[in-house]
Amino acid sequence: MHDTADGGRPWTFYALAAFFALFVLFLYGPMIVIYVLSFQGPNGGLTFPLNGVSLHWFDALIKQERTGDIAGAFQRSIGLAALVTVLTVLFSVMAGLAFRRRFAGAGLVFYMAIASLIMPGLFVSLGIGLVFQMLDLSTTWYGSALGAQLTWTLPYGLLIMFAVLGRFNRAYEEAASDLGATNWQRLQHVTLPIVLPGIIGVALFGFTLSYDEFPRTVLTSGSSNTLPLEIWAMTTDVTSPALFAVGTVTTVISFIVIGLALTSIALIERRRVRRAVSVGKSATVS
Amino acid sequence: MKINQQTVSWLQVAPLTLVLLVFFGIPMVLVAVVSFFDYGRLQIIPAFIFDNYLELFQSNLTLRLYATAIKYTVIVWAITLVIGFTVAYFLVFHVRSLTVKIGLFLICTVPFWTSNIIRMISWIPFLGLHGVFNSGLIGLGIIHQPLFFLLFSDFAVIVAYVHLNTLFMIVPIFNSMARIDPGVIEAAYDAGASRWRVITEVVLPLSKTGIALGSIFIITLVMGDFFVVKIMSGGQSATVVSALSTEIASLQYPPAAASAVVLVLVVALMVSAILRLVDVRRELTG
Amino acid sequence: MALDSKNGAIELVSVTKRFGDMVAVDSVSLSVPHGAYCCLLGPSGCGKTTILRMIAGHETPTQGEIRIGGASVAGETPLRRGTAMMFQAYALFPHLSVLDNVAFSLKMRGLDRAERQKEARELLSKVRLDHFADRLPAQLSGGQQQRVALARALITNPRVLLLDEPLSALDEYLRLRMRGELRRMQKQLGITFVHVTHTQLEAIAVADILVVMDQGRIEQAASPNTIYNTPRTAYVARFIGGQNVLSGKVEGVADGTATLRAAGGARLTVPLGSAKPQPGSQLYLSIRRDRIDIDGFRVARTLSPR
Q: What phi and psi, each to the nearest 5 degrees, are found at residue A213?
C-alpha cells in the first residue's frame, strides 16, 4: 500500500510479517508437538524425548485398551455431526430466505438467535438437562444433545445466510421470472445454485461445530459419550500418549472435512469469476 | 390464490424458531425458575425462595470468583485485541494478492475448526516441567531450572484462552478493515499523515465495529468458560462457571441456576455497555 | 401461449406508480403501435425504467391500465404477457453455461433436454455465438454477453422486447455498432421494441417513436425528426441538444410575428405559428444551431455581462 518510492516494502511490512509468522507458530506449534508425541514408543511418557517411534498408541485406540469406548464415541460423534449438518443447512437456508422479506417477529427471532450464540454452552446444557429431567425423559446423544448443538450451529448458519443472501443480486431472480420460472423453479434453478458456496459454508460450520462441541453436550448426551466428552474424561486421567493419538486422529478428520468443503467452494467460485484472458482473445470476434 | 408473502416467511423461519424455542428459550426460562427452588441432598424442591441468591451475594467466594473471571477476561481481551488488530491490519493492508490474503486468512482460521480440548491439551506437554519450552530453554542455556509458572498457573490459563479465542477478534476486525475505502487511506497519506497517525486517526476509528464485535465474543467466551480454567490452572483457580460446574456435578441445581442467572446478567451488562458505545447492528445484518 | 401473440401494440392509459410518498410515474398515457421501435429517453429518475418494468410485469401500476395487443395485462406474468426483458447488466446466470442460459425458459416450460438444447443452439448460431455454447458467462466479453442476453430473451418468442439501457455497459465503438444491430434486428423480427436510455444520440439513431421524459411525465412523444425539428417544450429542446433556447417577454404581437424583449435588452422578432401569446407573457423559442445564418451585424449596444 504505502510503499517506498522504489516500489519496495516499508520496514513495517517485514515487522508485521514476522509478527504474523510468530502468531501462526503460536497457533500450530503445540498441536504439532502433540502429533509428534502421538508416535511415541510403547514405553514412552507424556513428553519428550521420544522413546522410540511407533504406532503403538494408535493401536491402543483401536484395541481400546486404556482409552474407554473411543470407537463408539467416534461413531456417535460422526453420526451426530452428520445429523446436525443436515438440519442446520435445511433450517438455516429456509430461515435465511424468510428474512429477505419483512415479517412480524423477525426481530425477536433474530435476537433469540444471537442470544443463543453467545450464551455459555454450559447453561444451555443445564437448562436442557433440567427440562428433560422434569419431563422424566432421558437425555440422549441423538435427542437432547442434538437439540443442544443446534442452538449453537443454527445462529451461525443464519448469520452466514444473511451475508450470502445480502450480497445476492436480485436481477438474477427477476430474469428467471421474466423467463417463465415459478417461485419454486426460481429457488431451485437460480437462487440456491448461485448461493451454493455459502450453503457449503453453512454445512462446514455445522459439521465442525458439532463434531468438536463440548459444553453444550456435556450434560445432554446421556449415558453414551460423544468423542469430545470421551476426550474430556481422558484428560482428567492423563496417563498415556493414547490421548495424543486421539487428538491426532480427530484433527486429521477435521482437516479432511474442512479441506473438502473449502476445495469445493474454491472450485465453484473459480469457474464463475471473470477471467481477463478470455476477454482479450475474443474482443475481435464480437 | 397467492399465498401471503408474510405467511411464506413464517413457514420458512418456523423450524429454526421452534428448535431455538424448545432447546434454548424454554430451558433458559426453566433455569431462571429453578434458581428460586429449594434443594435437599439429592433432589430439588419446587419453591419460590430467594435463598440461593442471598447466599450468592453474601458469600465472599462469589466476589473472588468474579474477580478471577474478570481478571482473566480483561487480560485476554487486551492481548487478543492487540494480536487481532495487528494480524488483521497485516492481512488487509500489507498483503497485496487476494489469493495470498485468503490463503493466510485460512491458515489462521483452520485451527479453530478443530477440537478445542485437544488444542488446549496440547499446551501441557509444551509448557510442562519437562516440556518442550523448558527443555529448549535449558538446552540453550538460558535457564538452569525449569520454569514452574508456565503450567498449571494463571499464565497457562491466559495462554490457553488467547490460543483458543484470538480468531474471534481477528475475523470481525478483518471484516471491518476490509470495508475501509482504500481511497480514504490514500487521502490521509496525501494530507501528510505518518503511518502511525493513519492507524490511530483513520483505521482504528473505522474498525470500531469489528473491535466491538470481537470484544463481545471474547467477553462471553472467557466469562462463560469452565474447562480451560479447570485444566490449565491445575484446579488452583476457579471462575464463576467452573465453580458452577462443580455444583452441577453434585446435583445442586438451584444454586447453580442462580449463579448462572447472575452471570448472564453481569455479562449482559458488559455487552450492552459495549453496544452503547458502538453500533454493531449494521455490521451483523449488512 | 399468451393473449393475442401477434400483436405487440402497447397502450399506457393514465398509468401512475407511487413508491410510498414518491411519485415515480405521474399519470402517463402512451400509444405504441405494433412493430414500432420505441425509445424512452430521459435523465436518471425520470421514470423511464419504472415504466419499462411495469410493461414487463415486474412492477404493478398504482393506478391506470396497461394494454398489450389491445387487452389489459394486469396480473399476468411476463411470459403470459408475451414480453421479454434484457436487463441492464444482462443478469446472465453465472452458474449456467451460455447454452443453458439461452435454453432456460424452455426448461421452465418443461421441454426435454435434447429439444431445448437444439433450439438454443439454433438461436445461438443466429447471433454467431454457437462456438461459445459451453462457456460460462464470466468467460465472455461484454458484447458477447449482450448477445447471449438477447438470445435468451428472444427464444421465448415475445411480441414485445424490453431493453433496459442495453448499450450502457459497452465501450464506445461497440455501442455505435450495436445501435445498428438492434435496429436491423427489430425490423427483421417485426416485434415491438421498448428501449430505455439516457443517451440522446442513441435514442435518435434507433427509434421510430421517441418519448422524452422528465420527473415521471412525458414531455413529448413523437418521431425523432419531429422532436428535433419541433420540440414542444424548452426542456425537450435542451435535452435533445443542438438547440439554442432563448426566451423573452412579449412586447407586441402583429400579423403573425411577435416582438420579444430578452434579458439583457436584446430585441427578437419571432414568427408565430398557431401560438397566441398575451403581451407581457414569457415566450420560449429554440433555434437549431444548423439553422442560424449570420447576415452582417451591427453592434447595437454592448450587453452587460450577467
A: -70, 135
> Of C114, C151, C115, C113, nearest to C132 (Cα)?
C151
The alpha carbon of C35 is separated from its chain's Cα centroid by a whole number of angstroms, namely: 14
Residues of B in contact with A116 (CB under 8 A): 20, 24
Three-state helix/strand/coil letters over B153-191: CHHHHHHHHHHHHCHHHHHHHHHHHHCCCHHHHHHHHHC
- pLDDT value at position A281? 36
Taking CB atoms and an 8 Å cutoff, what residues of chain A touch B26? 127, 131
Distance from CA of A241 to the nearest CA of B (A): 10
All three cell numbers of B224: 462463560
Q: Sign of the CA dihedral C244, C245, C246, C250?
A: positive
Answer whether residue C234 shows pLDDT above 80. yes
Question: DSSP characters for C189-252?
Answer: H--EEEEEES-HHHHHHH-SEEEEEETTEEEEEE-HHHHHHS-SSHHHHHHH-SEEEEEEEEEE
What value does the mean pLDDT take over residues C230-243?
82
DSSP β-bridge partners for residue A112 = none
Of A127, A231, A258, the CB nearest to B30: A127
Alpha-carbon distance A98 to nearest alpha carbon in chain C (angstroms): 21
Which residues does chain C have within 8 Å of residue A194's beta carbon, measured at their own beta carbons? 93-95
The percent of residues in chain A predicted with pLDDT above 70, rounded, is 87
Cα(first)–Cα(last) distance of chain A, in Å? Answer: 37
For strands C37-41 and C192-197, give the pairing. Answer: parallel
Say how far apart CA B157 and CA B154 lie, in whole Å: 5
Please give the ipTM for the structure prediction. Answer: 0.86
Angle at C95 between CA C94 and CA C101, to 5 degrees: 75
Chain C, nearest residue to A280 by Cα: C141
- For residues A190 and A149, the answer to whether their CB atoms sit within 8 Å is no
What is the model's pLDDT at position B160?
A: 93
The set of chains that have 3 or more CB pairs under 8 A with B is A
Distances B196 to B95, B190, C215 between C-alpha atoms, Å: 18, 14, 49
Predicted confidence at residue B286, as pLDDT, reads 46
Tell me how close the Cα of A284 comes to any Cα of chain B, in angstroms.
30
The cell for C183 is 435496429
pLDDT band at C298 (very low <50, low <70, confident <90, very high): low
pLDDT at A285: 37
More confident site: A62 or C132 = C132
Question: Residue A50: CB partners within 8 Å, gap ≥ 6?
Answer: A36, A37, A39, A40, A41, A44
In this complex, how many residue pairs, one in chain A and one in chain C, have their CB atoms less than 8 Å apart?
91
Residues of chain B under the 50 pLDDT cut: 1, 286
Contact C140 A178 (CB under 8 A): no
The whole-number mean pLDDT for each consecutive block of 10 residues of chain A, a chain of 286 residues, reads: 61 90 91 83 69 74 68 89 96 94 90 93 92 86 90 95 90 93 93 93 93 90 86 74 84 91 89 51 36
pTM: 0.84
Mean pLDDT of chain C: 87
Question: Which strands, in side-by-side order, build the sheet including C267-271?
Answer: C267-271, C257-262, C243-254, C282-288
Other chains touching C, judged by 3 or more CB pairs under 8 Å: A
Supply the pLDDT for residue A32.
Answer: 87
